[in-house]
Amino acid sequence: MSHKNSIIVSVLIALSSPALIPAQNSAKLNEELPAGAMKQKATTACLECHEARIIVQQRLSKPVWTKEVDKMVKWGAVVDANDRDALIDYLSGNFSPDQPEYSALRTAREKTTVRSTRQKSK
To answer: Of the ranges 23-32, 68-77, 98-107, 113-122, which one carries the lowest mean pLDDT score?
Structure first.
C-alpha cells in the first residue's frame, strides 16, 4: 500500500471512531413522549418523521401547536380528523410555555467524549 493510501485509510479509520459517532438513536432510546390518552397517536403521527427529542423540547402555546399540527398534516402526517383536537390538547398540555424548561438528556458516552476531548486539549 502506498504512503498516500495508508494516510487515507488512517484518516477514514479515525473518522469512524466510536467516540466521534453519537449514540445510535440515543434520543429515541432515552426520551419518550409522556403518558396520556393520545401518546400512541402522537407516537404514530409525529415519530414517523421526528425523534421524540424534537417534540419534548418544544414549549408552544395551544394556538401554535394547532398551527404545527395542521402544517404537519399538510406535509403528510397521518392524523385522523376525529383525533386532531385531542392530539393538540395532548401536545399543548405537555409541551406548553408554562412547563419546565427542557433539559437534554446526556449519555455516559457523551460525558466520556467531552471529558476525553478536554483532556486532549490540555
So the answer is: 23-32
Structural contact between residues 49 and 26, judged by C-beta atoms closer than 8 angstroms: no
Helix axis angle for 62-74 and 84-94, nearest 10°, is: 130
Q: How many other CB atoms sit within 10 Å of the CB of residue 88?
A: 20
Q: Is residue 11 assigned to a domain?
A: no
Domain span holding position 74: 25-104
Which CATH number covers residue 88? 1.10.760
**Set of cell numbers at residue 11:** 484518516
CA dist 120 and 122 (Å) reads 6
The pLDDT of 19-36, averaged and rounded, is 58
Contact criterion met (CB below 8 Å) for 84 and 71: no
Q: What is the C-alpha radius of gyration for the chain, rounded to an integer number of angstroms?
A: 20
